[in-house]
Amino acid sequence: MPSYLWDAPSGAEARVATMSRRIVTRWYGTFLLEGARTIRTEEAPVHEAELERRVRERRSGALTPEEERLLGGRGSEEWTTADRRLVRTGVAWAPRAGREEPGRPSEEARAARRRVLLAAADQDLHDAWDPSIHLEEAVRAATDLDRVRNLVGERLASWVSRDAPEVDPGDHARAARVLLEESAPSALGPTDAAVRDARRKLAELYRSIESTEEALKSAASAAIPLKTPNLNALLGPELAARMLAQARGLDRLARLPASTIQVLGAERAFFEHLRGNAPPPRHGILFLHPAIQSASRRERGKLARTLAGKVAIAARLDRAGKPVDPALARAFEGRRARLKEARTGAGPRPRPRRSR
Asked: Other CB atoms closer than 10 Å to residue 189's CB: what's the count?
């Protein structure tokens, strides 16, 4: 963010609001007003290249050539402005009561400005694009397909177990295999050929969903080491992909504090805690990390907090295009080893005495 946004003067300078001369900048020029009268004008060229240049200058906090020329003739006069960029040049701050529109640009200038602004917006969208959105969508699609596969598999296995008692209703893959690979039909199966074909198509749908889900997971796991090597080294490809999806992209993950990363995926438990109905969550999807899953209940929160801090650093390194930093994984493993040593060396915890 440009520094001039933080240079707004205090309310003590409100006394200058009564000064009569005021400098006003518009896209078509810079004007010096005295009351409602324009006493000096520095018009901006209407060429698209020049207008584009001035858009960049104003957005970065720099002065346009028209502003520099007008301010060059100020001398010792005290002017006011509602533009924070000009405050740094010694012009006094005074917010305007209404919108001032000195001058009247031509239709040609308005059309040129519109084209320049559309081009600037298009460039901003291009610059803000986060390619990790494709990984996020792949992971979300795989998660959705997992739910759909379970629903279809439950219905398929329940149906097949009606005439094939050897099939466990919970073994969805076996139910699909019975219909698609075992050619001998059951004597208790559907007698209607249309129903048999429909049930076989249901098994094919289950296989197709399963295959697509595996393809999405494999694609995400293959792309993670290339796009986010530090997250991959710390979390592994599958958990790194889920973390990106939960954070809605690498850009946002790189901006999140470690305390938020620690509870990503535990939003429902967190809001229950805010309502006073539950203790604060100690971890979200970071629980899927093998080191946290295998830790004792007393250590999980500490390990999740440490891992979240390393994930925050890894995301910022990946966002900046840095290579893998092995110190992150070593620091996490060192913290894990110290907690394990403290647990094994402390012995059993003494039982608290009951008050009589």
From this structure: 15
What is the domain partition of the chain in residue ranges? 3-118, 133-225, 228-344
Whether 56 contacts 69, CB under 8 Å: no
What is the identity of the amino acid at 351?
R
The neighbour count for residue 154, using CB atoms within 10 Å, is: 14
| pTM score | 0.58
Answer yes or no: is pLDDT of 47 > 90.
no
CATH architecture, domain 133-225: Orthogonal Bundle (1.10)
When pLDDT is cut at 50, 70 and 90, the band that residue 15 belongs to is very low
Which tens digits make up the pLDDT trace of 228-255?
899 999 998 888 988 988 888 888 899 9
Enumerate the β-bridge partners of residue 37: 34
Please report the DSSP string for 298-331 in residue order.
HHHHHHHHHHHHHHHHHHHHHHTT----HHHHHH
Given a contact cutoff of 8 angstroms between Cβ atoms, the answer to whether 10 and 1 are in contact is: no
Q: What is the pLDDT of residue 203?
A: 94
User: Are 3-118 and 228-344 the same fold in CATH?
Assistant: no
CATH code for the domain defined by 228-344:
1.10.246.90
Cβ-in-10-Å burial (0-12, 13-18, 19+) of 216 comes to buried
Helix (H, G, I), strand (E, B) or coil at 318: helix
CA distances from 201 to 38, 97, 198, 209, 320 (A): 78, 70, 5, 12, 48
Q: How far apart are CA 46 and CA 32, in angstroms?
A: 20
Give the count of beta carbons closer than 10 Å to the beta carbon of residue 308. 21
3-state secondary structure of 73: coil
- Whether residue 227 is predicted with pLDDT greater than 70 in this model: the reply is yes
Dist CA 122 CA 124 (whole Å): 5
Q: How far apart are CA 135 and CA 250, in angstroms?
A: 10
Token pair belonging to 101: 């529109």
In this structure, what DSSP letter does residue 25 have?
E
Task: Look at 96-100, 147-151, 299-303 and tell me which has the smallest mean pLDDT.
Answer: 96-100
The CATH classification number of 3-118 equals: 3.30.420
Task: For residues 261-275, give the mean pLDDT.
Answer: 82
